[in-house]
């Protein structure tokens, strides 16, 4: 990136954050001016565009509250139900409680803002790390297939929309090692093979290694473990493996495998053959300065794994986006991953914040806004018992749930993310991501809530009834060290008609329980299982009394015995080990999900 371009983008950030209040006023004014006559807003504002009326009468909502409006647009009705903007595509977000994907309306304005975030972050990185213009980044990027909708528009994942954007195709892809055709290939194994092969051929150009989500790294390491011999053979012979048949992958590779390179193959093979792969990333790409990946929120579970394989290169989590809106960027990228905060960019959307109990960030202020007819919610806003604050009015150290309003038809929409204010950049606050509400288990981009997990386990219990078994208690954890990651459930069983703790477990029955749990989880989980991004679910049956020992452990750490509740999801290593040491049977889900 040219120095003048870097200076321009950095100046733009300073201007926006210095005038955060004014930028937010302009954003909301523009949204109301253009969308006040939509069916949705007109019900509350009757064509008026006053900010105070908007805050007084437009309810705070969740996806379920506006799902019927979005479904009508997906089915082909005109978008002026929610927005006067032209809808260009639908972005697929995490599943609803019913297991179906969320469809988020996207416009040209949305796409432009999504594409601008990496450009701004590129300028920030050049400011903090010298010499990035002397090489390229090996970014492991993958596109997913689009889905057709009755409206005639495509629905796609957030990452696929970004990779297909004009900004990426014409500008950003020039900073990476891999040709755009390989990145956009829908054959993920062949695309990954070619991206890694090119990255190794161009290893002395690689100054940074990255992906969008940190969860991609363990998959790539496993892929390298399985395919390094083929990669070294291709380098040694100058001939691409015959199993790479996809034209979008094979054709671009011809310009990289021009001739045999036995010297490079001889250098790489001992690295791969080493019994320990600790620090292998820095051995394969010795000039790499940092790892670029989102490691906040559910992705933080991969920090240890990345540290191990990278030799503790700095891990930089660059920006905070969601399918619903763009939020902010990391202005202090060299901070440790657990100290990452994101400066909100006030021109991205109109932001509001619901205060959350500081002592218990899991418990957001209970504003049970149940859609457009919820008079109790409006009354709470009017009498001030459910105060919602603007971007510039948040307080240092306070926890909040973020609410967004966008040109694309989201009005006072609860994203579900809990954030903590850690400081300010000029007049714009910096937030640390705390958690996504009600998420029990998380691997890759799948997030399973306690309610959804409980529902799935309930469905599986039916398989136990004919055999006289009773599920007395359960817990779980996300096994992120396995590749791919998977969910593991701990079950304590007893016979309904006996007090004996000696159980004869039927493998077929328990495997069917695993299967029933998986089939009952949501769209996102089932999709990633089909794509082998999540491994087969495992149930570990523990001996009777194991969960009593678990309770004793938490009581020893200060939990009140009378208020103790078995954790739905275990995240403390010692707690997992207590149950793991008492396992009497392990069972897996077999086969692929239908």
TrEMBL record:
Keyword Ubl conjugation found: no
Family membership, please give it. Answer: Belongs to the IAA-amido conjugating enzyme family.
Q: Which residues cross the membrane?
A: none
User: Secretion signal: which residues?
Assistant: none
Q: Mind telling me which InterPro entries this protein's record contains?
A: GH3, GH3_C, GH3_M
Q: What is this protein called?
A: GH3 auxin-responsive promoter
One MF annotation (Gene Ontology) recorded for this entry: acid-amino acid ligase activity
Q: Give the GO cellular component terms, alphabetically.
A: cytoplasm
